[in-house]
Specification:
Layout lengths: L4 E5 L6 H14 L7 E5 L5 H8 L4 E5 L16 H7 L3 E4 L2 H6 L4 H13 L3 E6 L3 H5 L3 H12 L12 E4 L13 H18 L2 H6 L1 E5 L7 H5 L6 E4 L6 H8 L14
Parallel strand pairs: 1-2, 1-8, 2-3, 3-4, 4-5, 5-6, 6-7, 7-8
Helix pairs in contact: 1-2, 1-11, 7-8
This protein binds 1,3-dihydroxyacetonephosphate.
Length: 261
């Protein structure tokens, strides 16, 4: 059984003081949560304080990016071992904003995935198609390409630490969510690809998150889909009430621990 994972990507938002306030309020609101893994991804400057604050709690911390080299003359970059040193457990990689705004290519993203795994951290590898690609019938080709290249040289054993996030670019920050059926179709396709790239066990154990305008009002139907194992939340993760409501999504029967009568 895959444990659901809800991650908040704060993107370029919040000062250290604002991040601290949000985490304090999440620690309070999410204290009862046991059956969902919770991750927050603040900006680099807030990582040390958020890591300190969330130590010994159910909240884990992700960085939003890293550089694949461990150290050296790479002005302005941060490496995976340094993020581990800071207390991070996850690193978001290949987000569409990095692909589009910073021209990150799959090969470079793959180098980051491998460096994150080598540092003992868990990559959240983001993949997803643009509207043009979907409209021109390239959806599955794009997903297969990004997954295959993003995971190049990752072993089946390392896959226990890898999380995939399907984020259709046209649904990010637009208020336009993929319908749960549209998302489920791609999630099932990704799981099939994982079976082909690795094996049945890897396909069954790998968590595949959905991202793109996830809100308290749509998380329930998304999570009711068998292949959707959680969410990567942008805008709604900046607000403690909304993020808490998303983490407390109504549990589909398959995730409930309640024994059937
Ligand atoms: P929104 O939830 O704001 O659409 O952002 C999604 C996202 O990009 C998460 O990484």
């Amino acid at each position: 059984m895959r444990k659901p994972l809800i991650a908040g990507n704060w993107k370029l938002h919040k000062t250290i003081a604002q991040a601290t306030e949000l985490v304090n309020s999440l620690l309070e609101k999410l204290a009862d949560v046991k059956d969902v893994e919770i991750v927050v991804a603040p900006v680099f400057t807030a990582l040390p304080s958020v890591c300190r604050q969330s130590q010994n709690s159910a909240i884990m911390v992700a960085a939003q990016n890293c550089y694949p080299q461990t150290e050296g003359a790479f002005t302005g970059e941060v490496s995976a071992p340094l993020l581990a040193d800071c207390g991070c457990r996850y690193v978001i990689l290949g987000h569409s904003e990095r692909r589009q705004l910073f021209d990150e290519q799959d090969e470079f993203i793959n180098e980051k995935v491998l460096s994150v795994l080598a540092a003992g951290l868990r990559p959240i590898l983001c993949i997803g198609e643009t509207l043009e690609q979907r409209d021109s019938g390239e959806l599955f080709e794009v997903i297969a390409y990004q997954l295959r290249f993003g995971l190049a040289e990752v072993t089946a054993e390392q896959m226990t630490d890898v999380v995939i996030a399907y984020e259709p670019v046209w649904a990010i920050g637009t208020g336009k969510t993929a319908t749960s059926e549209e998302a489920a179709e791609v999630h099932a396709y990704i799981r099939g690809l994982l079976q082909g790239l690795f094996d049945h066990e890897v396909a069954e154990q790998t968590r595949i998150l959905y991202g793109g305008s996830v809100k308290p009002g749509n998380i329930g139907e998304l999570m009711a889909e068998a292949d959707i194992d959680g969410a990567l939340v942008g805008g709604a993760s900046l607000n403690a009430e909304d993020f808490s409501a998303i983490v407390h999504f109504p549990k589909p029967l398959r995730m409930s621990n309640t024994p059937l009568p």
